[in-house]
Amino acid sequence: MRTAVLVPCYNEAATVAKVVTDFSAADSSVVVYVYDNNSTDDTAKIAAESGAVVVREHRQGKGWVMRSMFRDVDADCYVLVDGDDTYPADEALAMRQFIADRSADMVIGDRMSSTYLQENTRAFHRFGNRLVRYLVNRIFASDLHDIMSGCRVMSREFVKTFPVTTGGFEIETEMTIHALDKGFLVREAPISYRERGGESESKLNTFSDGFKVLATVGELFRDYKPLMFFALVAAVLFLVSLAMFLPPLDEYIKTGYVHKVPTLVVSIALGISSLLSLVSGVLLDSIRNHSKQFYELALTSYREQLTDNRRHN
After folding, report:
1. Against a cut of 0.85, is the pTM above it?
2. Rounded CA gap, 196 and 140, in Å?
3. Are β-strands 31-36 and 152-155 bridged in parallel, bridged antiparallel, or unpaired?
4. What does the alpha-carbon distance between residue 87 and residue 12 come to, in Å, rounded to a whole number?
5. What b-and-e string marks burial along 164-177, b requiring 16 or more CB atoms within 10 Å of the CB?
6. Which pLDDT tens digit goes with each residue over 55-82?
7. 253-257: long-range contacts (C-beta < 8 A, 24 or more apart)?
8. Tens-digit pLDDT profile for residues 223-278
9. At what angle are helices 226-255 and 206-224 packed, to 10 degrees?
10. Which of 68, 72, 247, 293 has its CA 20 to 30 A from that of 167?
């Protein structure tokens, strides 16, 4: 397989050379692509001197970098790693076997089952990973251990049909949810994780980026599971409406009059909103099902085109 190692980088001068040389040493046939995202240090220069193909991406954000990577790079297998030297090259490349035997479309390097909890000393990072994992597994009926891993090995089919819509660190969550929703084969493989070296600094802001990831999970829940999402909203509105409607109803039964007219009006408005929310969920779910059918047709067409290209080559 033609293998492309994709390394999104922002100010990783301290570690990028080791990442490039480790992958080249592990397999001399791979091509390492370093996409420099407006670094203010010598990341691009060092990567180029180490033998990587260096490309500039001027739109700031990991999601934008991966969008360009997925569009530009042509390969049979894609290995995605961070430029901070936290994943061993040999273990990441070993995951290609699942792509080769077609037992997976995306292999996630599972840090949680190896050394992540011992190496990562940031409590809020660990809590955020657990929270996102719980939400995604509950909403999308999966059993994944590491939703936000930055080490992934992907097939050409997945990469070339994945629509990137987020621009930041929430891209890993979007990739995972897209794969689960569209029926791609997803599996995890334990991978060693080592904390950054002393000179390398994390670009992830625990709170602001964490909130963005949670907001992305909510948005993708709404977009990928509209009936469930709006049914939950409808249920909440209905319960509040019912709680507000009972006092005026009790008053009317006892006295024949309703003095709490504003409460009654608000309860009726919430009841109507609940019904509208449920109807919206039904309509959006129907639209989503049609969109999913069109995606499957496009995926089938892409597979046929890929098969024809392989035959000609």
Report:
1. no
2. 32
3. unpaired
4. 14
5. bebbbbbbbbbbbb
6. 999 999 999 999 999 999 999 999 999 9
7. none
8. 999 999 999 999 999 999 999 999 999 999 999 898 889 999 999 999 999 999 99
9. 80
10. 293
